[in-house]
Amino acid sequence: MVKSKTLFFAALVPPQVVKEKVRNLKLEIREKVGAAHALKLPAHITLIPPFWLQNSQEKEFLEVLRVVGDKQKSFPVELKDFGRFDQRVIFLNVVDHAPIQELHKILSQALEEILSPAKEKKLHPHVTLAARDLPRSQFKVAWERLRERKIHLSFEAKSITVFRHNGKTWDVLEEIFFNNENYS
Q1: Quick one: 148 exposed, middle or buried, by C-beta within 10 A (0-12, 13-18, 19+)?
Q2: Cα distances (angstroms) measured from residue 81 to each of 44, 127, 129, 150, 184
């Protein structure tokens, strides 16, 4: 049976050197507390959270993102130290949320007709290190190891990466460069 809908999401993905440093942090967390779910994806900052889309709308969706990307200028992203959401998620803090929140707003408005209007949720830009499978009993252990530790990473956001779920894992569908930077 052919599925009529597929799961997608869009994110900022840092360059390889930053992805490796984040992966090492995720591996450390897996080793110390067993949380490995975050290793299923490369380091990323979500712009459009996962959503279902009719397969027939994929081309239109990508075209809208290309139009937005073509108007978007690259911008610096700074990751500094650790944060958390309750006792569920540990992440790297994004220092300046404004450019990411603005891009999220532009994307949300551009995709309004394609995506069914979801309850507007404020975007809190971050890079997840441990989430779904982080046991509450181990949260304190992981948080104590990281909360006082200092880390500082930065990169230039130059593109939107679109992920498509294949039924088991997330695949990169397309990287949409900002302001034709892929030609420079």
Answers
A1: exposed
A2: 16, 11, 12, 5, 33
Interval 87-101 mean pLDDT: 94
74 backbone dihedrals φ, ψ, rounded to 5°: -65, 160
Six-digit token pair at 38?
């975050």
Give the residue, 115 or 43, on which the prediction is more confident. 43
CA distance 112 to 100: 18
Contact between 90 and 82 (Cβ < 8 Å): yes
Element (H, E) at 47: strand 45-54
Cβ burial of 118 (10 Å; 0-12, 13-18, 19+) is: exposed
Nearest residue to 29 via CA among 87, 71, 91: 91
29 Cβ contact list (under 8 Å, min separation 6)? 35, 38, 90, 129, 130, 134, 142
